[in-house]
Amino acid sequence: MAASATDTATSQMMRAQLRLRELILSGEFRHGDRMSELPLVERLGVSRTPLRLALVKLEHEGLLQELPGGGYAVREFTIHDIAQANELRGVLEGTAARFAAERGTPRRALRPMQRVSDQIAEVIYRADYESFERYVALNGRFHAELVRLAESPFLERALDIVTCVPFASASSFVLSEAELPASREILVIAHNQHLALIDAIAGREGARAENIAREHARLALQNLQIVLRHRGVMARVPGHSLTTFDVDEG
Amino acid sequence: MAASATDTATSQMMRAQLRLRELILSGEFRHGDRMSELPLVERLGVSRTPLRLALVKLEHEGLLQELPGGGYAVREFTIHDIAQANELRGVLEGTAARFAAERGTPRRALRPMQRVSDQIAEVIYRADYESFERYVALNGRFHAELVRLAESPFLERALDIVTCVPFASASSFVLSEAELPASREILVIAHNQHLALIDAIAGREGARAENIAREHARLALQNLQIVLRHRGVMARVPGHSLTTFDVDEG
DNA sequence: CTAACGGAGACTGCATGCAACAGGTGACCG
DNA sequence: CGGTCACCTGTTGCATGCAGTCTCCGTTAG
Q1: How many CB pairs below 8 A link A and B?
Q2: Which of A75, A43, A77 is nearest to A60 (CA)?
Q3: Partner residues linked to A34 by β-bridges
Q4: What is the value of pTM for the model shown?
Q5: pLDDT digits (tens, 9 = 90+) for B94-146
Q6: Nearest to A60 among B60, B85, B153 (CB)
């Protein structure tokens, strides 16, 4: 109960939403499973009312889908969905970068982003697992900073929808790759793109910033390809159980 | 109560959501107004439980914002928000067009879109109000068709968030412009862009399709500039009361 | 042996009661 | 006369009871 997401001082609905999302992505349920309320009430320790609100929110996020007869079920994610969600993330983050560049974000406002980037530079050359964890956190901060610079609440909202899709968030696979050889190279490439992104925004090069961010997002798909070849690693990726990778048909 | 959105045979929550959105956009509330539940219960004829669910959904959509002390208030939309939401719509519809083009959408699948476009061609040269109404409906169908072609549920979801912003939807101002001289020209331009869009998708020209759709969305912003110079017209645009057009500062 | 019908169980959607919290107002004290 | 404290009202968040509906299984008739 220390560093968990189960922080009190928040509403029951929030607790239910966070915990339920965590449960779903951790593979506790199979896709298509009905999310019956009463079992969840027992499990999450909240009443039906806030649980129901959380279900509505998760449905809106796209993790759940409404059933015809009422109620919700865990949504299924095909490789096609994931690819498009990830591409969409690139589009949105690219737009954020373009907005920031076109507005003429002053150097001063770019300082936090630069600082995160510097910290990333320190960890990508270490091979220990702790450094990977630290990278994930820093990478998340970098992307959050990018969205903040766009100053567009709707963009932020749209990104919320996309990034909760399993495998489509910024650093989905990094942790799982800690043991794979290709991982460090990818981190180096990603860091280089971060630097280019900062440079483009500072130079008010909107189109360049947009394209860099798009390409940057596609790294996650490259990672997916890599991880798919190592099923053992795959099993530890959050949300893997929600996906159907029918690669044989393609 | 005949052709209203208050169709029964749907859940109370749906009814509350639709009716409430309608109320908000019709200017029934000022931005910043607290959406107290009990008065709304009386007004909408639904109980607190489904009303509350509708509030959560509308907050997620962005029409409402959470208050620090709990509860919700009508969100305010600045000209800045609207411009960015509209630009974002262009980005997303552009992505939809690109997806459709890159996938190689067959001619046959483009047929419905083509048909809508043909119907639009018939109405844009008439000046009566009924034709404008018909145009709005057809234009909506055209854009819905475009999103359908993308076959990306998350893209659809992201667009839902953007298009519910007042003035950022595809044909926000058309009806209000029925009486303005510039209106017909804009319809002609829009129709031409529709044709180009179909051509680009059919020819698998992804980048072209994306750029056309982006520019196409910017027409709505041009419309906003025009309408802003005619306050009398402005007052009849749905959602106008939620906005603050402090143009003097810019 | 199969198919259809009836009943029971479960689940959801909805309504309402209760408690806690915030905000505002009035009275009292300095 | 001003400031502060206490009370009161309004509102939200939560819990739970109730009714409608859907499904599944068992039984019975053909």
Answers
A1: 74
A2: A75
A3: A73
A4: 0.85
A5: 999 999 999 999 999 999 999 999 999 998 888 777 888 888 899 999 999 99
A6: B60
